[in-house]
Each structure stands twice: as structure tokens, then as C-alpha cells.
Amino acid sequence: MTATSPGHQRIVRLTGEEFRALLPDALSIYVAAMNYPPNTAQQRAPMWLTHALRAGWRGVAAFDPDDTLVGVAYGYQGSPGQWWYEQVRRGVVAREGEDFARAWLADYFELTEIHVRPDHHGRGIGETLLRTLMDGVEQRKVLLSTPEGPTRAWRLYRRLGLVDVLRDYRFAGDPRAFAVLGRDLPLD
User: Fold this and answer.
1) Counting CB atoms within 10 angstroms of each CB, which of 12, 40, 57, 117 has the fewest?
2) 169 - beta bridge partners?
């Protein structure tokens, strides 16, 4: 499926093979958007490739009129045994209890990555990527993690109705505080 977003970006649903072909450019966007050191891309590449093999994986990409990749998003069905699931479950159980964790983690789509090139922020690309990615997801909820702080991403997530599941959480391997946000699906 191809759609056009505001600003005339082209949004494309990706196959696993297309995602693998775009991986170097997608990781460059990720590193720039997250303000990570450049060598982070090499560390993350194997993980992103493994993610693309998970149940329910889907990905989308945004291209500018010159066919340059300017945004990427992907996710999959969350389940026990996955690193993110186990990290979030531990944090939620510690702060809110087992019942709260079970309610959120029972049937969710993990919005694993959504990134737009910083020079393309503010053009509606992130929202279009998110809505396209979520369209048709079978799980009852969507969950994601994002660094704490007032950012465009935060405003987008709040505007789309995502609520706090876990705040000020530190994932193993990243010193920054993150929030885990979620909401029922489908998006309105």
C-alpha cells in the first residue's frame, strides 16, 4: 500500500525484504532522531533484523518526493520472553502490581521504532507513519516506549490518546529515563 501524506511524502508498507534493503538508511535516521552516537547503528542492525522475523511484524517507510527515506516505523506482536516485554513487565509489576501488568501486556502490538529525520520534523510524517502502521493491527492495545521529556513525539502520542503505563523507567543499557505509553486499538 502506498499513500501520500501532508507535504507529499510517500508512505509505503514494507515487506521484510524491503526493510532489510533500507536498514542502513533507516538506522541513520534512528541515530539522528535519538541523538545516539554513530556506532549505535552497527550495534542495532542485528536486533532490527531479528525483530523483522517476529510474529505480526509490520513496517512502514516515508519517502520524500526525491525518493529519499525520511521516516521509518515498525513493530510486532509483543509476547513473554521478548526483551522489551520482560523489561516493561518487571517495571510495571514493581510499581503497579501484577493485575495492572497483565491488563496491559496480555494482547498488545509493540510499536518498536518510529523515527523521522530531524530536518523533516513538523510535517505530519510521524503521525502518518503511526496511523498507517496501526491500521489493521489485530492486537487489542498498542504499547511503546519513548524518552521522557517534552518532544514532538510526546505531543503526537498524547494527541493520539496514548496514556501512561510506566514513567521514569530506565531500560538496561540506556541511562535515560523512558516512559511506556499505551492505548486501546483501533486508533480513532
Assistant:
1) 40
2) 178
What's the DSSP call for residue 25? H
Which cell is 129 given?
507513519
Closest CA relative to residue 92, chosen from 166, 181, 177: 166
Residue pair 47/80 in contact (Cβ under 8 Å)? The answer is no
The predicted-structure confidence for 34-59, as pLDDT tens digits, reads as follows: 888 989 999 999 999 999 999 999 99
Residue 118, preceding peptide bond in cis (omega within 30° of 0): no
Q: Is 74 part of the annotated catalytic residue set?
A: no
In sequence order, what E strands does the chain have? 2-4, 10-14, 58-63, 69-77, 108-116, 141-147, 163-169, 178-184
What SS3 state is found at 183? Answer: strand
The residue from 30, 74, 108, 157 that is catalytic is 157
- Between CA 112 and CA 36 the distance in angstroms is 17
- AA letter at 57: W
pTM (predicted TM-score):
0.93
